Amino acid sequence: MAARPSVDHLVVASADLAVGTEWVARRLGVTPAPGGVHPGLGTRNALLGLGDLYLEVLALDPAQQGRSSRFADLARGRGEPALVTLAVARDDLEDPVPMSRRRPDGTSMSWQVQFTGTPLFYIDWLDSPRPAGLPDGGSLTRLTVTTPAPQELAGVAGIEVREGPWHVEADVDGTPLA
Questions:
Q1: Domain 6-138 is in which class?
Q2: Helix (H), strand (E) counts: the chain
Q3: Confidence (pTM)
Q4: Distance CA 115, CA 122 (A)
């Protein structure tokens, strides 16, 4: 039996990782920790714990210039960092795309994602552990997703879903992540 879908993590996109991590640190008072590189996708990340969830700062990887992917497109040309999407954990993905990265401690991680017609994506960690031991950025206290496809979030707890053009808003311990 499939587990109930749940919010796995929020994604802040930034053209530059240092700029993105500083943007988050100014808002939440905690600097995200280095995560790793997504080989072949043109991106790298930094991570911050949010209780049972985490926040990913996704940025272009200068060592992979010219690489294109759905994730790189979220960060490319972005003047200011912004909260752009979220990942929903599910174990029943259709047409999954394999992904991997090596953590700073050398541990390899492998998982799968399923893209949707919006920036939302689904994630299945398979046998890899979810990111853990991250700096504590607080707890998610509000998450609102406005989407042209509200059915994609059906059954996901903890989200206020509205119909309309794609937009994500979140508060961490009452502080807007905007």
A1: alpha beta
A2: 2, 12
A3: 0.95
A4: 7
pLDDT, tens digit (0-9, with 9 covering 90-100), for 112-139: 999 999 999 999 999 888 888 899 999 9
Find, among 98, 118, 116, 101, the residue nearest to 56 by Cα. 101
Token pair recorded at residue 101: 């990265």
φ, ψ (nearest 5 deg) of residue 161: -110, 130
Q: What is the side-by-side strand order in the sheet with 175-176? A: 160-163, 140-147, 167-172, 175-176
Q: Are 66 and 131 in contact (CB under 8 A)?
A: no
| Alpha-helix residue ranges (DSSP H) falling in the chain | 17-28, 70-75
Question: Which residue from 35, 25, 19 is spatially nearest to 175, judged by alpha carbons?
Answer: 25
Rounded to whole angstroms, the Cα distance separating 151 from 22 reads 34
Do the Cβ atoms of 96 and 113 come closer than 8 Å? yes
On the 0-12 / 13-18 / 19+ scale of CB atoms within 10 A, 66 is: exposed
- At 2 the pLDDT is 55
Length of the chain: 178
d(CA 107, CA 85): 26
Residue with tokens 């240092």: 18
Collapse the DSSP code of 22 into the 3-class scheme (helix H, G, I; strand E, B; otherwise coil) and give the result. helix
DSSP letter, residue 136:
B
